[in-house]
């Protein structure tokens, strides 16, 4: 069997049956985090725009929109739910892909699974397939392309893989679906969006839609090119399918901002916990970080996207509020103390941190107090990675902090319980009913 042919075979054969409990747990944790981020993202302006656009451009179908009564076609639902999932930049990610697999893959699989009336176990299998194929596509893409392209470019391939499993495509159809998804993916210049934050963000909603569409097109015998899995760069990542599970290496974000800003936030958190310093006692802060992090905006944000793709705003918000969550990036953009704190922060690129990126995202800060003391933090990395994980209680706290204000405590508890036992659901639609009814 050729290396590229192993991917369709894997997509058809993968199953949660007899999988080690930690792998199944990893999928369920990804699902819980995803739905929490999607529910919270419904409050962002971009979510309303996505809904209005998709309602006009895609016809009525069987696929649900989170927190909406109406249903759209799978492509339309995947687009809207994908936009919601990444609206606050709180969704999961993977270091080597430099992006967010879940927000592209899960909405696509969910939309197709609901239309096809799949049960919970079938949905879980397809989500696992989507993550394993999508993450590998992301790693290969970054190795084979000269520029840094966004999540939608490779996430669409993972979405197509998961939807191909739901649609029970044949091997040749899957090969076409993966090639169509890559070709129709966003292939977007990510650093230009870092320099100019917008609602495009990581191309996630469009990538999810492209992945769904690719699988449905392939089922109709629409042909595609050989996917990037035919490239020699991907050989080692394909050969370890079913032996190494990349979903166990995704990260969960504790802060509503770009991952590249989060190491500095962790540095500040460490200093504040040790010293009990307050905002008023700090004269200035120097942030030592890697080049990509330094490219994040340093000016006061005018909208939530600019707040998320900002290095100084998250640090200043944490300094003032002790957190950087949905409330800060949605409603505190012009808070006078946050803006004042931003003026006290400067950044410097540090070659130590450039040398280990993207495998590690690290920063260090120096805090200068008004009393003349200087406090240096440890070298910190972004919290939530598999090697610096959120605790089980921290993951639950994040889930409930994002869902309870919107759907209430009772629905939040029921939703989490159903995700934790999702393989027992007779219909994946039962999960959506908890949120939407």
TrEMBL record:
SUPFAM superfamilies for this protein: 2-methylcitrate dehydratase PrpD
Name of the protein in its database record: Uncharacterized protein involved in propionate catabolism
Organism this protein belongs to: Schinkia azotoformans MEV2011
Family designation: Belongs to the PrpD family.
Gene Ontology MF term list: lyase activity
UniProt superkingdom: Bacteria
InterPro entries: MmgE/PrpD_sf (IPR036148), MmgE/PrpD_sf_1 (IPR042183), MmgE/PrpD_sf_2 (IPR042188), MmgE_PrpD (IPR005656), MmgE_PrpD_C (IPR045337), MmgE_PrpD_N (IPR045336)
Annotated Pfam families: MmgE_PrpD_C, MmgE_PrpD_N
Residue ranges of every copy of the MmgE/PrpD C-terminal domain listed in the record: 255-411
Residues of the MmgE/PrpD N-terminal domain: 9-234
């Amino acid at each position: 069997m050729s290396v590229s042919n192993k991917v369709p075979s894997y997509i058809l054969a993968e199953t949660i049956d007899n999988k080690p409990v930690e792998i199944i747990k990893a999928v369920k944790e990804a699902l819980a985090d995803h739905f929490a981020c999607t529910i919270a993202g419904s409050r962002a302006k971009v979510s309303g725009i996505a809904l209005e656009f998709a309602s006009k451009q895609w016809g009525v179908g069987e696929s649900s929109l989170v927190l909406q009564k109406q249903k759209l076609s799978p492509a339309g639902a995947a687009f809207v739910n994908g936009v919601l999932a990444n609206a606050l930049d709180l969704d999961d990610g993977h270091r080597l892909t430099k992006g967010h697999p879940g927000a592209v893959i899960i909405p696509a699989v969910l939309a197709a699974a609901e239309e096809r009336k799949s049960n919970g176990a079938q949905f879980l299998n397809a989500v696992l397939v989507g993550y394993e194929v999508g993450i590998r596509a992301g790693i290969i893409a970054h190795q084979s392309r000269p520029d840094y392209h966004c999540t939608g470019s490779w996430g669409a391939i993972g979405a197509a893989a998961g939807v191909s499993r739901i649609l029970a495509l044949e091997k040749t159809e899957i090969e076409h679906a993966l090639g169509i998804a890559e070709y129709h993916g966003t292939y977007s210049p990510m650093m230009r969006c870092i320099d100019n934050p917008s609602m495009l963000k990581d191309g996630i909603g469009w990538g999810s839609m492209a992945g769904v569409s690719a699988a449905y097109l392939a089922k109709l015998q629409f042909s595609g090119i050989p996917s990037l899995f035919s490239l020699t760069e991907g050989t080692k990542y394909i050969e370890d399918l079913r032996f190494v599970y990349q979903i166990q290496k995704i990260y969960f974000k504790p802060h509503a901002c770009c991952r590249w800003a989060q190491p500095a936030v962790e540095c500040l958190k460490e200093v504040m916990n040790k010293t009990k310093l307050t905002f008023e006692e700090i004269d200035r802060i120097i942030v030592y970080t890697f080049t990509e992090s330094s490219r994040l905006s340093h000016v006061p944000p005018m909208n939530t996207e600019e707040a998320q793709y900002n290095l100084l705003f998250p640090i200043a918000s944490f300094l003032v509020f002790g957190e950087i969550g949905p409330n800060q990036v949605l409603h505190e953009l012009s808070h006078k103390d946050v803006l004042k704190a931003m003026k006290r922060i400067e950044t410097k690129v540090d070659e130590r941190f450039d040398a280990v990126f993207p495998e590690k995202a690290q920063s260090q800060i120096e805090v200068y107090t008004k009393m003349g003391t200087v406090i240096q933090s440890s070298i910190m990395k972004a919290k939530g990675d598999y090697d610096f994980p959120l605790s089980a209680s921290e993951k639950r706290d994040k889930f409930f902090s994002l869902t309870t204000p919107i759907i209430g405590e009772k629905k939040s508890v029921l939703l989490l319980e159903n995700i934790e036992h999702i393989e027992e659901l007779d219909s994946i639609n039962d999960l959506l009913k908890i949120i939407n009814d």
